[in-house]
């Protein structure tokens, strides 16, 4: 499946030294891939697809955490 191939390529891609707009674009691409894979997963319940979605979600969370920045620590 081409969608799974795209998801695996996205997962392997380096995310260091990205501009803010690149991070926003990567986050949107991750969301698009996750939602598309979810539609496929609903039909055939393949565990491999679920694992790919979990990995993409983890990577998306890291990207979004970097976009939002770290919260200030109050002492």
Summarize the structure.
The chain is mainly α. It has 3 helices and no strands.
Topology:
Elements lengths: L1 H11 L7 H25 L2 H22 L7
Helix pairs in contact: 1-2, 1-3, 2-3
Using brief descriptors, characterize the structure shown.
75 residues; mainly alpha
Describe the structure.
With 75 residues, the chain is mainly alpha-helical. It has a domain at 34-67. The chain has three helices and no strands. The mean pLDDT is 90.
- DSSP helix count? 3
- Tell me which oligomeric state these chains represent: single chain
Helix-and-strand structural type: mainly alpha
So what's the overall shape?
elongated
- How much β-strand is present in the residues? under 5%
Radius of gyration, in angstroms, nearest whole number: 14 Å
| Largest sheet: number of strands, sense, barrel closure | none
Q: Let me know the number of strands.
A: 0
Q: How far apart, in Å, are the first and last alpha carbons?
A: 51 Å
User: Overall pLDDT, averaged?
Assistant: 90
Percentage of residues assigned to helices? over 70%
- Order of helix and strand elements from N to C terminus: HHH
User: Which ranges are low-confidence, i.e. pLDDT below 50, for 5 or more consecutive residues?
Assistant: none
């Amino acid at each position: 499946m081409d969608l799974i191939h795209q998801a695996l390529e996205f997962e392997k891609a380096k995310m260091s030294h990205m501009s803010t707009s690149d991070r926003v674009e990567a986050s949107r691409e991750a969301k698009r891939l996750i939602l598309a894979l979810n539609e496929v997963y609903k039909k055939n319940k393949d565990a491999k697809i679920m694992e790919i979605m979990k990995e993409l979600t983890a990577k998306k969370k890291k990207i979004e955490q970097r976009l939002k920045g770290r919260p200030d620590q109050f002492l």
